[in-house]
């Protein structure tokens, strides 16, 4: 099957129905292993047991950013190629990305209180992550409030592309500005600065969160395709009633 | 396993994450069954079938 064949929603639904149970099973297995390893991970020499919050916070941050990256690529598909599934993919990613960004911000606050002594500071990393959440809410508002779904989709796609500017700001904020948030300790030149006893469960949890993201994304895309079918059929039915009444 | 003096923060983080994930899963599952139900009702009334037949004629 060529990639372009997936542009057909019926073929895409068939693929989703086949893939989804396997992806959901992989998510459950990875979470079981990840949580087992997270519980058994040693305390950090500085953070103590609060390092366990990192097993949630770091993957949620990555996926919050990845969700926006996915929406930006989908936005190109909507605006440039008018790919039939691009808008569906972008719209489906928005609530999931927003949820992961929300998890990242709240778990970060809960980690910050015992470690930094405060729930929140207006530091560049925290603020740019909050901006990401607000951008997600903006895109969701555009989708939910637009009377014409096509116009709402185009407006959301433009905001998705403009908002992509925030992604490098989040990533490099800890290098560009003097922040309370620590610099990159996993994805950095010279390798990870984290001990394998903590890095391994963190990476397994990241894999579990990533599988969860794609499981939810495919499921929400499937729902959105069905919703559009329902809308089309309801419009057809209304038109038939109108013609019969005329 | 001891979570030390900051156990409340750790438990709250895991509880919140579990709640958000459970809410997302519930929303997806309920939305799926709702769309399937409405689609089934419309097909039962012959909306899709009639349109297809009209398209073929």
UniProtKB/TrEMBL annotation, chain B:
Keywords: Cell inner membrane, Cell membrane, Cytochrome c-type biogenesis, Membrane, Transmembrane, Transmembrane helix, Transport. InterPro entries: Haem_export_protD_CcmD. The chain crosses the membrane at residues 12-30. Pfam families: CcmD. It comes from the Bacteria. It is a single-pass membrane protein. GO terms for biological process: cytochrome complex assembly; heme transport. It is found in: Cell inner membrane. One of its GO terms (cellular component) is plasma membrane. Required for the export of heme to the periplasm for the biogenesis of c-type cytochromes. Belongs to the CcmD/CycX/HelD family. This is Heme exporter protein D. It comes from Pseudolabrys taiwanensis. The lineage of its organism: Bacteria, Pseudomonadati, Pseudomonadota, Alphaproteobacteria, Hyphomicrobiales. The gene is ccmD.
């Amino acid at each position: 099957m060529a990639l372009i064949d997936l542009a057909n929603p019926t073929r895409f639904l068939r693929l989703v129905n086949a893939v989804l149970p396997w992806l959901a099973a992989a998510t459950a297995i990875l979470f079981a292993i990840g949580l087992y390893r997270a519980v058994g991970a040693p305390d950090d020499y500085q953070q103590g047991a609060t390092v366990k919050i990192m097993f949630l916070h770091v993957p949620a941050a990555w996926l919050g950013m990845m969700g926006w990256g996915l929406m930006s690529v989908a936005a190109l598909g909507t605006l440039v190629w008018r790919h039939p599934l691009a808008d569906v993919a972008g719209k489906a990613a928005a609530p999931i990305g927003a949820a992961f960004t929300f998890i990242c911000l709240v778990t970060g606050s809960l980690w910050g209180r015992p470690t930094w002594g405060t729930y929140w500071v207006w530091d560049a990393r925290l603020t740019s992550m909050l901006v990401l959440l607000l951008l997600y809410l903006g895109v969701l508002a555009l989708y939910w409030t637009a009377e014409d779904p096509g116009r709402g989709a185009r407006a959301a796609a433009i905001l998705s592309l403009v908002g992509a500017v925030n992604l490098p700001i989040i990533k490099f904020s800890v290098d560009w500005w003097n922040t309370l948030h620590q610099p990159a300790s996993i994805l950095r030149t010279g390798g990870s600065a984290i001990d394998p006893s903590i890095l391994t469960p963190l990476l397994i949890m990241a894999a579990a969160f990533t599988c969860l993201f794609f499981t939810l994304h495919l499921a929400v895309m499937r729902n959105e395709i069905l919703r559009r079918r329902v809308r089309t059929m309801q419009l057809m039915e209304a038109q038939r009633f109108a013609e019969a009444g005329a | 396993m001891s979570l030390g003096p900051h156990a409340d923060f750790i438990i709250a983080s895991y509880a919140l994450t579990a709640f958000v994930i459970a809410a997302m899963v519930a929303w997806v599952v309920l939305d799926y069954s709702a769309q399937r139900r409405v689609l089934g009702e419309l097909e039962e009334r012959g909306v899709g079938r009639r349109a297809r037949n009209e398209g073929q004629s």
